[in-house]
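Quick entry between incubations.
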Amino acid sequence: MILLKSHSCGELNKKHLGAKVTLAGWVNRRRDHGGLTFIDLRDREGIVQVVFNPEVSKLCHEVASQMRSEYVVRVSGEVALRPPGTENPKLPTGDIEVIAYNTDILNTSKTPPFYINEDTEIEESLRLKYRYLDLRRARMKENLLLRYRVVKFIRDFLDTKGFIEIETPILIKSTPEGARDYLVPSRVHPGKFYALPQSPQQLKQLLMVAGVEKYFQIAKCFRDEDTRADRQPEFTQLDLEMSFVEEEDILNLLEELFISMVKTIKPEIRMTKPFPRLTYTEAMEYYGTDKPDLRLGMEIRDLSDIVAQSNFSIFLSAIAEGGKVKGICAPGCANYTRHQLVELNEVVRNVGAEGFITLPLGASGGSINDLTLEMVRSVATKFLTLDQIKQIAERLGANRGDLLFIIAGKASKIVDVALGELRLELGRRLKLADPNVLAFIFIVDFPLLWWNEETGQWEAMHHPFTAPKDEDASLLDVAPEKVQGKHYDIVCNGCEIAGGSIRIHTSELQRKIFKLLGYNDDEIEERFGHLLEAFDYGAPPHGGIAPGIDRIVMLLTGEETIREVIPFPKSQTACDLTFSAPSTITEQQLAELHLRLREES
RNA sequence: GGCCCCGUGGUGUAGUGGACAAACAUGCCACCCUGUCACGGUGGAGAUCGGGGGUUCGAAUCCCCCCGGGGUCGCCA
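Done. Structure below.
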């Protein structure tokens, strides 16, 4: 192989002393001392100092004076020990330097629009416009590398488990039942469209029918929905499916995958092993969400039985109307100001909860047994006895100096969600999330269906291919809301990182579910006929899961958004700011696709 | 579609009704400098304050509309 370089900048050390090397890279920084010039030369592997001494080469020294930041240069020189006292411990290559005897400028560079050699905050739209420069920065380079390591680890791991990686098409059929599809017009078939896969769900099930048994793919998925910090129009998931398995097999495999991945890639990160398991009901009950961040502690507890003994009408009426009174304890927050409490009340109000009560448990440093009513500055002291307050404090695991929040409501779900939001806000304010912990958990026992009030129809909690639990199958006809699905999620630090299920593998049951979801026979045939027919040719029992690669890498890098781990992400309005996509196309292109643009009113 | 935040020399910030002919840091350009490593020194250039309209004697600053970016609710089988 012929390269313009013999070594990379970052690999050089004392072992190379005396070696004649040729390096090529970018000028990270130039320090011109007049008679002597230093260049920090950067390539993918790191930075090394190059010395241009006119006594070694007058020509090199002159060329170096022309160099500027981000110029692409090649240097031939000798690796030498730095003079004693001039070593740079901040640099991995800081013991040595390269004395240049030959150099040339391979390309010049305009002054970049932002710093590449410093880690400063830069407006994201500018970074995205010049993403190729942004990716030169150390932080982004490290993120790209870590992402590669994650995907490499997954491939190696699954290979040892007997999985094979199979590609599935990007141009498939629109079967609208979930997110909005990205569509591609057909030139050959006027008026017809392909859809980009929202996930390879049906394809991987067909691969199971094909007898592949263990399949995976690092798959691009496309969903035309609004973006979030952890959502992009196109994203990458590890798509995985196995035949002849039950829920437990999939969970054990994924647990082993994630534990060994984290140990290998981020050994300093702590995890709870084995991963705790929560049912969907427990998650909602104790955390007010189906993707709880277990690092925060502060579990929600039901207080209805205690306050039922009080004469506080807010509590009593909530309970009488079939609702709940629940609470949460904010450690050490008894001294919160009125203003802070109003702000927190706002959080609760935003999700539609009323009946917000605060109970500060006096000053810190003392037993809860010594608490007196006078210490508790709350309206609730008029209606709650000291003993009731102590019972509440005990149930919430509270100490003196803590602040209790109680929410009463006739709709239990809103009480849970409000306390869940409050918990997240308190977690942020109290910085309870340990960045060196990855709190993986499994969420299991989801309902199969939920009733959509707006459309007046049953909808799939996960997707329509999820199998009901065997013992619940008979309930499908009489009480669909009670049916649990063989559906499981993996949640980590409050982020849903994977969802999967054991699938339906008979056409009979699959048809029944489609009908329950409101499709008529014709629609079922038109949209899912291919899948149902396949099930009639010996489809094996099968199931799988789909972890989100972007989210996993985001958690491992400690980034706040998945855009930081995607080389070329879209903006919130789904634009590619590097290419300025989407863009208009020519009239000829439209005509070939048999399309005419509508006049927007 | 709703709500919230941001937009000031290349970059990051300050300035929130008059003393702004817009400040600071860094970057950039020129000159000086042989051991620096965020080198140092001297000098210099660089901003229609995102765009448009309005209020006012006076607007970077207040109001309205638009554009761009971000967060979030809805949405995300």
